[in-house]
Amino acid sequence: MEETRKKRIFSGIQPTNTPHLGNYLGALRNWHRLQEEYDCAYSIVDLHSITVRQDPVKLRAQIKESYALLLAMGIDPDKSIVFVQGHNPAHAQLSWILSCYTQFGELSRMTQFKDKSQKHPENINAGLFTYPVLMAADILLYQADLVPVGIDQKQHLELTRNIAERFNNLYGETFIVPEPYITKSVEKIMSLADPAKKMSKSDENPNATVTVLDDRDTIMRKFRRAVTDSGCEVRRGEGKEGIENLMSVYGAVTEKTFEEIEKEFEGKGYGDFKAAVGEAVADSLLPMREEYKRIIADKAYLERCMKEGAEKAFAASRRTLRKVNKKVGFIDL
Ligand code: TRP
User: Fewest Cβ atoms closer than 10 Å to its Cβ: which of 119, 219, 275, 333?
Assistant: First the structure.
């Protein structure tokens, strides 16, 4: 009897800086939960990361750290494909082919390209421009049905769908046209130093961002210093964006609603509330941090997982690449 194919999920994360609470609560913490129901492939996208200048020594360390972190979060390399993008040459190959089926105008309209080229006017390289094509190749290579992405990547996924449809129309069914995988999780965690700004990996103020590997003292200190308002009631409202942000964090970690949180802290001050948020976050990140320390110290294990991941990724993408090569008219030896 033919087994029904589990739906495939693909997602990627850049190996630049340690993920922060917003990345974690918004996306990463769901990744391991998806493994039961789906056939998951998760990639550390090193090729994408060099569209902005990286220090090679730091990059190498961060690729390993990001990989170890995925395992520490509970992603099981026996259940899912966990791999470094650059270890599978098929990504770059398919990316080239797809770039010939993507229009200059389409790429010019990508808001992330516009933002990034404004931020780095000294280095508006072609890779920055074709970044979304490589992302499309990542997804389409594995015939992903679903892609968990944040709002900032929705436009890239939309482009991926357009490229897939265009190719399918020209050559017949080749790619699965992927859908965004929407989770109920928090969309946005704001900076602890400025509740009008998104929490960001690249924030210069170290107090603005809590990373998933911060220790308890650091977490407690950052929440204690979080910018709020001059009031004293723990509730949402005009001018209380800082408190609302802390409520979102607390709610995401404890699974309590805003109403429950308001009740819990009725008559208590901001000090108590901030301490409770810090404790809850530190508690929830603790197991992952411990596991991370263990894995990152075990070089042989890490290397073996990376190698096996690369092999699995290669095997899983081979058919797609061959099919594409054949359709466009290349010779298969
Ligand atoms: N561009 C994504 C980001 O910066 C990372 C990424 C690369 C990705 N390839 C992907 C995400 C494929 C989902 C699917 O967040």
Answer: 333
